[in-house]
């Protein structure tokens, strides 16, 4: 496609619409279910960011918008000429205007509306001021003093969600070799090392790293999904146990913990060693589960550090942003 640059280590999955001069950097993953992701002219998605669109939660990104490193966008609409700080998370249904700036690590909650020319920081994000002349000059300077917007000419890229014969990298560590059920699927840019067992029908998505070295075993059950650019590891003399039907969102860090049946950990969350999550727990996006935290069955937890904010009264279904056939 004309002037689209995609680094070799980036991954485009599904049907994605690009304008001209778009750029997808190293380790970034863009996943679209059912033609649900579009990116305008001259927009950049930098290293290890993840963008996920679905029919229920489509993503539309304007022109000359730049995402910093390790950003996450799920089901959001973002306007033109936005400057997005590293580690920012946009959650489903959020809508952002044009000429907006986001501080590093900001979280935009589901359904939040950010008007044009806003400067936003915080977890959750809050508008701290309107764009100043100095802010506008920074946005212009970062784009070579060209903030003109040309008419959008879309080009469609279609990629298979699961390409035959392409699976991730499996590494021995000492005497330990990962054991992976033949029905599990490991995306080609995922890496699994050492003392790791993965059960039937589980999915390890693009860019995931699962490390079972001398510190202890990693045991992943059946029908588990671990999404893009997440990292699983553990401290010495510990174990990481993930029970059946668990869903781990994009960009998470999961250390030696026990995660109960049907739990959902949303994007960008951190779960620390020696913690324990019960069955059917929901960990909200960007939350930090501290070391040795214990959360009981059916609890909803959120915050930095995480605390109980509610209770699940029903068994959760897998979220719309989860991997499905494309």
UniProtKB/TrEMBL annotation:
<dbReference type="InterPro" id="IPR011004">
    <property type="entry name" value="Trimer_LpxA-like_sf"/>
</dbReference>
<keyword id="KW-0614">Plasmid</keyword>
<dbReference type="Pfam" id="PF14602">
    <property type="entry name" value="Hexapep_2"/>
</dbReference>
<protein>
    <submittedName>
        <fullName>Uncharacterized protein</fullName>
    </submittedName>
</protein>
<dbReference type="InterPro" id="IPR001451">
    <property type="entry name" value="Hexapep"/>
</dbReference>
<dbReference type="InterPro" id="IPR050484">
    <property type="entry name" value="Transf_Hexapept/Carb_Anhydrase"/>
</dbReference>
């Amino acid at each position: 496609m004309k002037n689209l640059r995609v680094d070799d280590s980036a991954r485009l999955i599904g049907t994605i619409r690009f304008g001209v001069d778009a750029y997808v950097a190293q380790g970034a993953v863009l996943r679209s279910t059912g033609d649900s992701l579009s990116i305008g002219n001259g927009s950049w998605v930098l290293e290890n960011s993840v963008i996920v669109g679905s029919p229920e939660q489509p993503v539309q990104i304007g022109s000359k918008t730049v995402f910093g490193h390790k950003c996450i966008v799920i089901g959001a609409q973002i306007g033109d000429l936005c400057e997005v700080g590293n580690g920012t998370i946009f959650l489903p249904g959020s809508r952002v205007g044009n000429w907006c700036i986001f501080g590093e690590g900001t979280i935009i909650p589901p359904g939040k509306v950010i008007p044009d020319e806003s400067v936003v920081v915080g977890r959750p994000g809050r508008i701290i001021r309107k764009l100043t002349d100095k802010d506008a000059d920074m946005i212009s300077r970062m784009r070579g003093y060209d903030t003109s917007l040309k008419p959008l000419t879309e080009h469609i890229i279609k990629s298979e969600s699961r390409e035959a014969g392409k699976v991730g990298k499996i590494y021995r560590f000492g005497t330990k070799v990962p054991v992976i059920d033949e029905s599990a699927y490991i995306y080609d840019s995922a890496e699994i090392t050492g003392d790791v067992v993965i059960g039937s029908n589980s999915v390890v998505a693009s860019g995931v790293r699962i490390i079972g070295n001398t510190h202890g075993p990693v045991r992943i059950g059946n029908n588990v999904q671990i999404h893009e650019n997440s990292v699983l590891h553990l401290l010495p003399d510990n174990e990481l146990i993930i029970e059946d039907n668990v869903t781990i969102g994009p960009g998470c860090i999961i250390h030696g913990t026990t995660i109960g049946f049907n739990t959902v950990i949303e994007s960008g969350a951190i779960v620390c060693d020696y913690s324990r999550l019960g069955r059917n727990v929901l960990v909200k996006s960007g939350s930090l589960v501290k070391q040795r935290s214990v959360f009981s069955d059916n609890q909803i937890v959120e915050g930095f550090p995480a605390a109980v904010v509610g209770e699940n009264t029903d068994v959760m279904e897998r979220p719309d942003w989860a991997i499905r056939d494309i």
